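Shipment paperwork, digital attachment
Item: protein structure file
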Amino acid sequence: MEHAFHIYNKMASDGVAMSTDKLLRLNEQGKTIKTTGAGTSSLLQSRPPVVVCVGSDLAIGDSLGPIVGSMLKFKTQGLNVFLYGTLAAPVTAKEIRYVRTFLKETHSDRQVIAIDAAVGDEGDIGLIKINDTPLMPGAGANKQLGSLGDISIMGVVAEKSLTNYGLLNTTRLNLVYAMAEIISDGLAALLWERCARQKEVKKDA
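Attachment content:
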């Protein structure tokens, strides 16, 4: 299942929040039914997900992830959430396999949202895509790094080509920044809501 929003859509950040929450709920419900044969509990559905922002600040086209991470870190100050990948401490391709192991050992009870830049058709540039499938980091650069996360959010920043030169060198920072604002606004709203919901559920338990 995929949801897509263009950066010029004034409701894009709300769309990111609602679509991500919906996919997290469906994914959590599926996992619970598979393991226990029952429906999800309110506590499970209220747990804030772990967010992993993939990319590097060494190339504008690849900097969407760490910019989102830095913005989200600021917008969620005061919340007890787990966020990895910022401009100060990026999660790059070479760390993917270690991050995957770390997440499995440290956050096995949480869903993971993975965020990265992507390439696509010319008409897709500017689209933010939310999928109920794991992220495949480096796929746009023809790298085989394996999957990451439960839910993926990708921002299409350049047209796919044989060399992907556009992704690395000709992507406009304005496009990446606008996408990062929308994604971080949407996820910040989701995380604030989930943390508040978790407190209410624990209070009523």
